């Protein structure tokens, strides 16, 4: 069973329930295989890693400086890297059960009824939905330092101790003065031309994010993430990135954003204004930006409740989500007025 741990009924030899066990296991396996064929938010926007610890710590390092000239016969200058920020992401345990009542089992004279078949399929879908909803929720709440998801408190800070989207991200080295912002506001969506201009400015901002040595990293943004409840913004974004010429231009100008982007409509991201995120998939991978750790795959056990005679299936899983850095992503809000905590886009 793909990525699942399955345990048979512990010490129970009930002929009636025994006839359900193998078919239900096959239903769970088939549904798991079907779900894995469809990439979700976790697969598209996060780095997915396995873990065998209670938490995972990502340690950042500075880069080597450029090579220096060496005179004839002389050796090279020694260079080294130093540890910068580190980020620890703790794993979260989740559980769920479904039950087949004694009456349902009694009435299923031959084969498995439609009601019984639906339960394991929905059970597996709930597991994958939890993973994707947690990942989406973490990005949606990227202006916060912490939040509660399904009763679990989740740390949403990056390695510098600030929220994912912030106007004053710090350098690790105290001698590096100033801060950097990846949270902006301005006229980004009043019309298609403004949106095209804003995407160009935002991409430039992301490309010019600096590392801990103050060097420009030059990552190229290639993903646009938009809310799921802003249909006009969604349509405008798709037109802008999908048209060879500037939308609405009398001069039929070349569209500088054409072909540069993948558009992701983020499920659950419902906003009262137009806003969007841009991200570099390369920076996300190289810098360990959005992280999702699989600690324990879905562990499924079945048993019979002696008090009710009901047949229940219990699922346990554990995974962690978090952000190591902010330098792979940026958030922009459409607003003529000042947005608290954000930098004016210019």
Give your account of this protein's structure:
With 346 residues, the chain is of the alpha/beta class. It contains seven helices and 15 strands. Strand 9, helix 6 (231-242) and strand 10 (262-266) form a beta-alpha-beta unit. Helix 1 packs across helix 4 (114-140) and helix 5 packs across helix 6 (231-242). The protein is globular. The N and C termini lie far apart (52 Å).
Overall mean pLDDT stands at 86
Fraction in helix? 25-40%
Poorly predicted segments: none
User: How many strand units?
Assistant: 15
Oligomer: single chain
Key words describing this protein structure:
7 helices, 27% strand, 15 strands, alpha/beta, 6-stranded mixed β-sheet
Give the topology.
Layout lengths: L3 E4 L7 H22 L4 H5 L1 E4 L4 E7 L21 E8 L1 E9 L1 H6 L6 H27 L5 E4 L2 E4 L27 E4 L5 H16 L15 E5 L3 H12 L19 E5 L8 E5 L1 H6 L3 E15 L6 E13 L5 E6 L8 E2 L2
Parallel strand pairs: 1-12, 2-12, 8-14, 8-15, 9-10
Antiparallel strand pairs: 3-4, 5-13, 6-7, 9-11, 11-14, 12-13
Helix pairs in contact: 1-4, 5-6
Briefly, what is this?
The protein has helices at 15-36, 41-45, 102-107, 114-140, 192-207, 231-242, 281-286, and strands spanning 4-7, 47-50, 55-61, 83-90, 92-100, 146-149, 152-155, 183-186, 223-227, 262-266, 275-279, 290-304, 311-323, 329-334, 343-344. The protein is α/β, with parallel strands linked by helices and 346 residues long.
């Amino acid at each position: 069973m793909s990525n699942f741990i399955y345990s048979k009924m512990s010490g129970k030899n009930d002929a009636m329930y025994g006839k359900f066990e193998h078919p239900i296991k096959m239903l769970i396996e088939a549904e798991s295989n079907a779900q894995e064929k469809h990439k979700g938010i976790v697969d598209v926007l996060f780095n997915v890693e396995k873990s065998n610890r209670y938490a995972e710590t990502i340690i950042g390092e500075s880069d080597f400086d450029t090579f220096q000239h060496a005179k004839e016969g002389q050796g090279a200058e020694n260079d080294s890297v130093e540890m910068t920020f580190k980020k620890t992401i703790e794993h979260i345990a989740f559980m769920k059960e479904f039950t087949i009542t004694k009456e349902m089992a009694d009435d299923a004279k031959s084969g498995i009824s439609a009601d019984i078949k639906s339960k394991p399929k929905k059970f597996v879908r709930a597991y994958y939905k939890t993973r994707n909803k947690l990942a989406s929720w973490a990005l949606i709440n990227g202006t916060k330092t912490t939040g509660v998801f399904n009763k679990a408190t989740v740390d949403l800070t990056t390695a510098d101790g600030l929220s994912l989207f912030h106007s004053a991200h710090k350098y690790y080295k105290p001698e590096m003065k100033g801060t950097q912002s990846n949270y902006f506001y301005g006229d980004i969506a009043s019309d298609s031309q403004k949106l095209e201009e804003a995407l160009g400015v935002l991409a430039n901002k992301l490309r010019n994010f600096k590392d801990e040595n103050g060097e420009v990293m030059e990552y190229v943004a290639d993903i646009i993430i938009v809310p799921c409840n802003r249909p006009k913004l969604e349509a405008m974004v798709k037109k802008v990135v999908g048209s060879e010429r500037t939308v609405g231009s009398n001069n039929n100008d070349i569209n500088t954003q054409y072909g540069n982007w993948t558009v992701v409509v983020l499920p659950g991201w419902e906003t009262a204004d137009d806003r969007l995120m841009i991200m570099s998939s390369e920076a996300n991978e190289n810098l360990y930006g959005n992280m999702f750790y699989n600690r324990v795959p879905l562990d499924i056990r079945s048993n019979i409740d002696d008090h009710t005679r009901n047949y229940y299936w219990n699922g346990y899983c554990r995974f962690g989500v978090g952000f190591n850095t902010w330098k792979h992503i940026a958030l922009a809000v459409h607003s003529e007025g000042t947005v608290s905590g954000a930098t004016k886009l210019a």
